[in-house]
Recover the amino acids of this structure.
């Protein structure tokens, strides 16, 4: 009986396990085997280069830019996504009706094609767009949205925040709905106003949701691709260059599969270490305040 | 019983045909009109050659056609042959022993003569003396001008030199302050292949077609290159060049000049029927520096691609594909069909002189005539295996900093040359 149950469990888990083996473990193993070779995937000759790919990656200005830019994006995207998604969740929670409708509506950008959104944004920010025409009439000039390093970074960050906020707001909404109403009623009886209630009840009890969103958002910052690919190509002058663009460029444009795999490994290490450090910092901050 | 015997014999006969049939696959460019051409050719060929089954499908763009081909070769599912290969990517395939030379077939010389490509084919010879790519088309890049707007400004023909272009720009801004001379938002984007449609076009014009790279050496004409960069910078400083995205520029008359390949014409016919050759737009070779001799022909960049034969195919499949390609390219009527279907000019020496093509072009597509005349002066892409990095660095280390004023044209040019030295070793 027990054996049957175990077999059933394996059977049910097998689709996931199989897909994980085919689409994750085998490619991962293959990528790791590539990092020691200079190879373009099709040549019969694989040149063993030892750790040269790592040396090149660690001294490459392209990789350095991708590394730094990720933290720039992270510094803008993570706090903005947290604030916007929390605000959205609070708005939806306090709606008198059609809560699900609005929650799903805010979630839609997450499902939309990044390329399509990129093209729409490109049109909205084109030189002759109504927005730019208006700015030129009022201010005398319009920003070079996608050609100025600062503006380009902000535009891409904004697109990602807009895309993610609806999704993250659902996580916050679930957290908000899990907070017992009695706590607010008791606090109100004790004379606590809405702001105090938010600070003393809502925020501490939303800690698990906050933690989840934080880790997800940090992970996303290390995987930015579509937005800069469509809008800026990583420019101007590497200002929006990312890890994924570099991997794509090396593996699919320069046909350097070995070096591309090395950059992917460096990206994985940077992502892992960054998430670990941020998690530790947030956990220790939460522990000091008694959040769980 | 007898019926069964008939069915059995019939099935056996079908089986024998199937066994005798050679199956080959051809990947066309991911462009519907090119796919149509190759499908028509394959169907016509199979009608008279039942022993060959040709499957035509477009190259999967995952995410680019080059990456799609690499993935197919790596996965052991490469087609027998494909088109859409330029010399740079061809060099990578040759280095990887992924393609085989066409000139190994005994009828090679016969094909060269039959297609009239004795001169054109020279640019496609690889360092080992072989021909791995049969050029399919050559699109000489020309400059289109909104002659209707130029006429309003008092011009009857487009400007030829940089000074004339700048003077036109001044007249344009004086009459239409919101218009620009040239929209080229990609000039500030490092994407390697975008250089084909800006710097290379102007550089080859200014340098009389002097190659940028020959073998592993930089053989560029420094004076011409610096002059081109200075021209771009001047255009931008005078607000004649717009490098920000613009929904539509030339088509709606917000700009008056654009670098143009003939593939735009079918799209224009569908979306901008008001753009009529000779009436609203004209074509010219790229503008040249003031010191360029007026009697000399003006060179330009050629967007040229061709057909390759993959090493993964069996000898039998290679032979069958060769026979098919030989059949397609030996008949000039097929090249005429190519012009009619794709709107692009075949890579032939006689495309501008053969009445078969000129009669059709003059009557149906007069805008193609300047392209045909320019083929002799069109330089194909860099053949070096490091073409991606070489061209990417041109945008990053040279054009962008020159446009923003961080480097002078001379400094930008030297920065690019210094940056690619290691790649050429």
């Amino acid at each position: 009986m027990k054996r049957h149950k175990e077999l059933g469990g394996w059977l049910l888990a097998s689709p996931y396990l199989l897909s994980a083996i085919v689409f994750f473990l085998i490619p991962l193993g293959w990528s790791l085997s590539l990092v020691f070779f200079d190879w373009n995937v099709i040549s019969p000759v694989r040149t063993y280069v030892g750790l040269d790919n790592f040396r090149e990656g660690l001294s490459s200005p392209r990789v350095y830019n991708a590394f730094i830019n990720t933290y720039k994006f992270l510094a803008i995207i993570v706090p903005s996504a947290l604030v916007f998604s929390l605000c959205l969740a609070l708005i939806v929670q306090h709606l008198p009706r059609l809560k699900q409708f609005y929650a799903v509506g805010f979630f839609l950008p997450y499902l939309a094609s990044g390329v399509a959104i990129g093209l729409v944004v490109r049109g909205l920010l084109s030189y002759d767009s109504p927005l730019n025409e208006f700015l030129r009439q009022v201010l005398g000039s319009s920003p070079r949205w996608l050609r100025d390093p600062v503006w380009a970074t902000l535009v891409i960050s904004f697109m990602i925040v807009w895309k993610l906020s609806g999704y993250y707001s659902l996580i916050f909404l679930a957290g908000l709905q899990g907070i017992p109403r009695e706590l607010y009623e008791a606090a109100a009886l004790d004379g606590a106003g809405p702001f105090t209630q938010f600070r003393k009840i809502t925020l501490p009890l939303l800690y698990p949701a906050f933690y989840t969103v934080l880790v997800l958002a940090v992970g996303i910052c290390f995987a930015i691709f579509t937005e800069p690919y469509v809008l800026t190509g990583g420019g101007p002058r590497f200002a929006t260059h990312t890890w994924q663009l570099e991997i794509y460029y090396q593996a699919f444009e320069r046909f350097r599969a070995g070096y591309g795999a090395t950059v992917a490994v460096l990206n994985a290490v940077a992502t892992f270490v960054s998430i670990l450090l941020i998690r530790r910092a947030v956990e220790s901050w939460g522990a000091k305040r008694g959040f769980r | 019983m007898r019926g069964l015997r008939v069915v059995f014999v019939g099935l056996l006969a079908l089986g024998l045909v199937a066994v005798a049939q050679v199956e080959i696959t051809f990947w066309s460019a991911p462009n519907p009109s090119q796919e149509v051409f190759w499908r028509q050719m394959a169907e016509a060929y199979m009608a008279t050659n039942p022993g060959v089954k040709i499957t035509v499908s477009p190259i999967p763009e995952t995410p680019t056609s080059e990456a799609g081909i690499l993935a197919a070769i790596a996965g052991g599912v490469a087609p027998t042959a494909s088109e859409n290969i330029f010399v740079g990517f061809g060099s990578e395939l040759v280095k990887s022993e992924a393609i085989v030379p066409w000139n190994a077939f005994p009828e090679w010389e016969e094909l060269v003569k039959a297609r009239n490509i004795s001169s054109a084919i020279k640019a496609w010879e690889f360092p080992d003396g072989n021909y791995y790519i049969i050029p399919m088309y050559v699109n000489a890049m020309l400059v289109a001008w909104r002659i209707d707007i130029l006429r309003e400004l008092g011009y009857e023909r487009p400007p030829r030199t940089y000074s004339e272009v700048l003077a036109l720009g001044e007249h344009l801004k004086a009459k239409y302050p919101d218009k620009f001379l040239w929209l080229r938002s990609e000039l500030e984007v490092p994407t390697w292949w975008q250089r084909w449609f800006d710097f290379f076009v102007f550089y080859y014009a200014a340098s009389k077609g002097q190659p940028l790279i020959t073998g592993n050496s930089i053989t560029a004409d420094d004076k011409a290159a610096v002059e081109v960069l200075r021209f771009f910078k001047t255009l931008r400083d005078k607000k004649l060049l717009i490098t920000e995205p613009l929904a539509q520029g030339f088509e709606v008359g917000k700009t008056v000049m654009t670098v143009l390949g003939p593939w735009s014409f079918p799209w224009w016919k569908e979306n901008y029927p008001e753009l009529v050759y000779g009436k609203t737009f004209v074509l010219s070779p790229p503008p040249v520096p003031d010191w360029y001799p007026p009697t000399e022909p003006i060179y330009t960049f050629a967007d040229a691609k061709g057909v390759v034969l993959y090493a993964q195919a069996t000898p039998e499949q290679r032979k069958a594909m060769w026979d098919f390609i030989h059949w397609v390219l030996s008949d000039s009527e097929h090249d005429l069909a190519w012009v009619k279907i794709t709107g692009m000019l075949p890579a032939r020496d006689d495309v501008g002189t053969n009445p078969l093509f000129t009669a059709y072009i003059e009557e149906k597509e007069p805008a193609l005539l300047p392209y045909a005349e320019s083929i002799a002066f069109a330089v194909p892409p860099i053949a070096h295996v490091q073409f991606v990095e070489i061209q990417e660095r041109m945008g990053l280390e040279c054009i962008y900093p020159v446009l923003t004023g961080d480097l002078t044209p001379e400094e930008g040019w030297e920065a690019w040359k210094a940056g690619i030295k290691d790649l050429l070793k």
